[in-house]
């Protein structure tokens, strides 16, 4: 791996550029939901500066916890007059906090589980494909690693959390219908490493990245497809920097692949849903990776009506499920998710759809807490339903 | 005349500190490691045009600030424009441009009323921004001693500049040779006390600029260019990548 020296030039330049206008606070989901100044982007800027000026020793663990009360959604970047890449600064802050040993204790044990089980849920790593049995998938071919053109990178949340397993089931059904040459990495799939980056442990994230790339190479795949927005961003934007070179395969989000098939009329959706679907852009997919139209193309084809929520596309509002906020302040995460659910209800949507298992997971909980009548689905599930597979 | 020698020394010192400060900033930036160029993709001419047009929209027209807060956006945009116009106005005193083309009639308007009005407008716009910094909770939480010094220098410097013509002046011509190649020439001498304070305060501001958040005047351009370059590279990568073929 290429040795990494932090901070990088653009980190320093961006920090020096900050005029402290605090426009970022106006749209920060954690600040809006909590009203707590300590979680406003401006406060994190202060923390980074302390670390960079060598005053990190004086910071308490409690204060450093604020670095993790952020969803890493990057909305602050969109409001910054100078387009400071704030998310990179928040990752840098977590890196400093990790190096200084001042992360919240709960995250230390979280990291231990992640490193030993290769997934953030502490589940047995040999059970990564167990979801297929739980869903009663009768034809598991493809789930065991084999030589194939496409690797379906399952992701930890869909593989281990029942709330998102349907998305995996839908993905498998669609790939089979399309007669795609596909496989998974089976139990050889490790977490994409993004939670490790979020924890500030870049070395371990690079190790996970290296492992996954080798595993994909082993099945001779030329394309890796994800259903998770964060895995997608990780593979697409972070792996090359972590590994110091280009990836030997293409990376696609499943919505990109499906929209290609739909627009080329290779995937028919005869059972169009009679529903108004509000689409929530996952931050890592839209703002960070510019995958904006593909999910919309799919929803327009799979349902009666697509409804745009306030704060969409590059300006998408967060679901609350990013940045490991759940591990540090689950209440705040749900507050953010509930606000988004209310927006979907106000838009008179029948379904709230997203293209990320973390978003789905947050929204399912939020809908339960709000007690509202709205279905939460992943766009892939929507397509599978419209295709009559699900 | 001895006082003018002191002022000259102040201006020289400020410029020297400014140059040292700029070198310090550049060294600080270049000492940090460079990042791996994402996919090492270069941009075409057309894409560079897109980058630059977005930077112009953000920095010249302050698109993002307007979107976030219309009142703040208006004040900030006006403040920057007034600063620009006043700086251009100041260049006349250094012989960069001449007012000969302006006839006697509108002279009082263009060389008297408008600059004076803009000077006071700038003062009140700066005052508004400072009050906002103090009143808004997130902004107040970020207020440092450095920011207070910055606003104090700006406000008092502009105030003294405005008072130069309001306080008693003389009708004699005024010249100040700052460098052998740079002379300030005014048709009528300003109020010397206000002028001296104006020079001292704004020299201090110039010296402080590379160490203060005002460095965004330069770094903001770079940071915006880097952002839109990155954005375009990501978009290109995503939009061009939906293919299963090698």
Tell me what you see in this structure.
The complex is a heterodimer of chains A (390) and B (246). Chain A is 50% helix and 9% strand. Chain A has helices spanning 9-17, 23-27, 29-34, 41-52, 61-65, 75-79, 86-99, 105-117, 130-134, 156-160, 162-177, 194-199, 202-218, 229-243, 254-263, 293-302, 325-328, 330-346, 357-370, 379-386; strands at 150-153, 182-183, 223-226, 250-253, 273-279, 303-308, 351-354, 375-378. The mean pLDDT of chain A is 94. By secondary structure, chain B is mainly alpha-helical. Chain B has helices at residues 2-31, 45-59, 63-68, 70-93, 104-135, 137-142, 145-166, 192-208, 216-239, and strands at residues 174-179, 182-186. Chain B has a two-stranded antiparallel ribbon with strand order 1-2. Chain B starts with a helix and ends in a 7-residue tail after the last helix. Classes of the chains: A alpha/beta (390), B mainly alpha (246).
Q: Shape of chain B, please?
A: globular
- What are the low-pLDDT stretches of chain A, counting only 5+ consecutive residues below 50? none
Q: Supply the number of helical segments of chain B.
A: 9
Major beta-sheet overview of chain A: 4 strands, parallel
Q: Largest sheet of chain A, order of strands side by side? A: 2-1-3-4
**Oligomeric status:** heterodimer
Short account of what is shown:
By secondary structure, chain A is of the alpha/beta class. Helix content of chain A is 50%, strand content 9%.
Keywords:
heterodimer; A: 390 residues; alpha/beta; four-stranded parallel sheet; 8 strands; 50% helix; B: 246 residues; mainly alpha; two-stranded antiparallel ribbon; 9 helices
List the helices and strands and how they pair.
The complex is a heterodimer of chains A (390) and B (246).
Chain A: H1 9-17, H2 23-27, H3 29-34, H4 41-52, H5 61-65, H6 75-79, H7 86-99, H8 105-117, H9 130-134, E1 150-153, H10 156-160, H11 162-177, E2 182-183, H12 194-199, H13 202-218, E3 223-226, H14 229-243, E4 250-253, H15 254-263, E5 273-279, H16 293-302, E6 303-308, H17 325-328, H18 330-346, E7 351-354, H19 357-370, E8 375-378, H20 379-386
Parallel strand pairs in A: 1-2, 1-3, 3-4, 5-6, 5-7, 7-8
Helix pairs in contact in A: 4-7, 11-20, 13-14, 15-16, 16-20, 18-19
Chain B: H1 2-31, H2 45-59, H3 63-68, H4 70-93, H5 104-135, H6 137-142, H7 145-166, E1 174-179, E2 182-186, H8 192-208, H9 216-239
Antiparallel strand pairs in B: 1-2
């Amino acid at each position: 791996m290429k040795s990494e020296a932090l901070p990088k030039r653009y980190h320093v330049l961006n920090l020096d550029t900050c005029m402290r206008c605090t426009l970022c606070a106006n749209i920060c989901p954690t600040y809006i939901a909590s009203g707590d100044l300590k979680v406003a982007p401006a406060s994190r800027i202060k923390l980074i500066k302390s670390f960079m000026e060598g005053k990190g020793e004086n910071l308490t663990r409690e204060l450093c916890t604020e670095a993790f009360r952020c969803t890493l959604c990057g909305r602050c970047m969109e409001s910054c007059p100078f387009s400071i890449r704030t998310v990179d600064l928040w990752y840098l802050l977590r890196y400093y906090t990790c190096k200084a040993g001042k992360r919240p204790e709960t995250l230390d044990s979280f990291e231990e589980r992640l490193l030993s089980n290769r997934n953030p849920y502490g589940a047995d790593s040999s059970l990564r494909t167990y979801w297929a049995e739980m869903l009663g998938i009768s034809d598991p071919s493809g789930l065991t690693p084999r030589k194939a053109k496409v690797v379906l990178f399952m992701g930890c949340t869909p593989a281990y959390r029942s709330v998102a397993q349907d998305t995996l089931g839908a993905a498998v059904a669609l790939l089979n219908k399309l007669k795609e040459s596909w496989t998974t990495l089976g139990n050889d799939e490790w977490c994409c490493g993004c939670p490790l980056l979020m924890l500030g442990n870049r070395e371990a994230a690079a190790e996970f990245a290296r492992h996954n790339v080798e595993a994909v190479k082993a099945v001779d795949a030329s394309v890796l497809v994800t259903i998770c927005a964060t895995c997608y961003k990780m593979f697409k934007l972070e792996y090359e920097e972590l590994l110091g070179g280009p990836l030997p395969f293409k990376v696609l989000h499943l919505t990109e692949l499906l929209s290609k098939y739909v627009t080329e009329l290779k995937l028919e959706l005869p059972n169009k849903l009679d529903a108004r679907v509000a689409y929530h852009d996952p931050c890592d997919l839209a703002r960070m990776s510019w995958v904006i139209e593909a999910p919309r193309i799919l929803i327009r084809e799979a349902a009666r009506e697509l409804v745009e929520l306030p704060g969409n596309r590059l300006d998408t509002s967060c679901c609350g499920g990013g940045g490991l906020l759940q591990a540090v302040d689950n209440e705040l995460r749900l507050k953010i998710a509930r606000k988004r659910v209310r927006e979907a209800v106000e838009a008179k949507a029948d379904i709230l759809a997203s293209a990320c298992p973390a978003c789905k997971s947050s929204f399912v909980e939020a809908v339960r807490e709000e007690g509202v009548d709205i279905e939460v689905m992943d766009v892939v599930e929507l397509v599978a339903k419209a295709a009559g597979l699900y | 005349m001895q006082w003018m020698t002191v002022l000259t020394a102040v201006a020289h010192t400020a410029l020297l500190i400014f140059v040292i400060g700029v070198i310090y900033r550049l060294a600080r930036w270049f000492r940090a490691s460079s990042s791996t160029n994402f996919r090492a993709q270069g941009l075409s001419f057309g894409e560079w045009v897109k980058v630059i047009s977005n930077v112009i929209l953000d920095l010249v027209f302050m698109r993002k600030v307007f979107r976030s807060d219309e009142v703040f956006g208006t004040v900030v945009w006006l403040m920057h424009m007034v600063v620009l116009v006043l700086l251009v106005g100041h260049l006349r005193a250094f012989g960069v441009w001449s007012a000969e083309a302006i006839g006697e009639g509108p002279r009082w308007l263009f060389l008297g009323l408008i600059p004076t009005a803009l000077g006071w407008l700038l003062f009140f716009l700066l005052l508004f921004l400072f009050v906002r910094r103090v009143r808004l909770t997130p902004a107040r939480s970020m207020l440092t001693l450095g920011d207070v010094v910055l606003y104090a220098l700006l406000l008092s410097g502009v105030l003294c500049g405005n008072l130069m013509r309001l306080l008693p002046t003389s009708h004699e011509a005024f010249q100040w040779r700052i460098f052998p190649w740079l002379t300030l020439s005014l048709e009528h001498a300003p109020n010397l006390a206000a002028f001296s304070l104006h020079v001292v305060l704004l020299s201090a501001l110039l010296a402080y600029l590379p160490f203060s958040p005002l460095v965004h005047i330069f770094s903001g351009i770079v940071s915006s260019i880097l952002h839109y370059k990155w954005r375009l590279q990501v978009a290109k990568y995503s939009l061009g990548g939906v293919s299963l073929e090698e």
